[in-house]
Structures are given as structure tokens and as C-alpha cells.
Amino acid sequence: MRVTCTNPDCNKVFKMQLKEKNHPRGIKEHYFTCKHCKKRYTSFITDKKVRVLQKEMKRTTDVDRRMAIVKEVEERKKTLMQNFMN
Ligand SMILES: [Zn+2]
Fold it and tell me: Could you tell me the superkingdom of the organism this chain comes from (predicted)?
């Protein structure tokens, strides 16, 4: 996937390559960087709980449970992102 860098001094198109970085307390950052200016874009954050839920989601055949997990994961990722940025 090709994206345009939002750094006004760069503004170049680059190929998005998602990478992972481990942080303390089981936090995993999924990010990509602009290959021109090295600007870092954090795509999303997961923690142990999110990854456990995602595993459960793959296993469960219960649609209601699956929907509940999707919602919980989305909300937790939002919170993790806010904590990570502050
Ligand atoms: Zn750039």
C-alpha cells in the first residue's frame, strides 16, 4: 500500500511496511516509517489482553461473542493508543 507522508517538509509517497516493536508491560506497537524523512506513524497498539481476545475471536463460532470481542478490542486499542501517545 502506498501512502503520502504528512510531514509538510517531505510530502513524498512511500510504500507502507508495517513493523512491530515490543514495549514494556507486554505492549506491542505496530508502526511504519516514511523511508524519506523517517517520520514514524503508529498504526495501532496491542497488549496481552487484546492478543488473548483476538485469539479467542478466531476460535469462537458464537456470533454474539465474536461481535462483543470486536467491540472490546476496538475500545481497548483506542485506550492503549491514547495512553501510548501521552
Ligand atoms: Zn516523509
Answer: Bacteria
